[in-house]
Specification:
Blueprint (H helix, E strand, L loop, with lengths): L10 H8 L3 H8 L6 H30 L11 H31 L40
Helix pairs in contact: 2-3, 3-4
């Protein structure tokens, strides 16, 4: 199963934001005319799919190790500590991708809207030449020493 086929927690938000199915969005993202927002969104979605898969794997491993029908002698505090560290890392990655993708979806322009050109402020230009300022009266003069 490819990353594109793995479900994520933000798939519905992506399809609503871009108005197409995930397959169509991935195809559009690989075209040269794809918007930067779509390309980034689909890259983040791929990373999110991998991170969420890791969370599920660790969760399932912990559930299997602590199942009610499991022999208590098989429980390992060290293995559970390691799984807790893996879970913390996987959740941290997932949370980062969710935040980045959520921010991208909140800040991207509405579909079909053209990005506005930045306002360009022009500075007034002087059209007349002013004569140079007069030099101070004692410019370049050497001061006499006082006894």
């Amino acid at each position: 199963m490819s990353v594109q086929d793995k479900p994520t927690s933000l798939d519905e938000a992506l399809t609503q934001a871009f108005g197409a199915s995930l397959g169509e969005l991935y195809a559009q993202a690989h075209s040269p005319s794809a918007s930067a927002a779509l390309t980034r969104a689909m890259e983040l979605r791929s990373f999110l799919a991998l991170a969420e898969e890791q969370v599920v794997r660790v969760r399932d491993r912990v559930h299997a190790a602590t199942a009610a029908d499991r022999d208590l002698g098989e429980l390992s505090a060290e293995a559970l500590r390691m799984d807790a560290q893996w879970m913390e890392a996987a959740l941290s990655g997932r949370d980062g991708y969710v935040a980045a993708l959520g921010e991208l979806l909140r800040t991207m322009p509405a579909p079909g809207s053209r990005p506005e050109r930045p306002v360009q402020l022009t500075q007034p230009k002087l059209t007349t030449m002013l004569p140079p300022a007069p030099a101070p009266a004692r410019a370049g003069a050497v001061r006499a020493r006082q006894p």
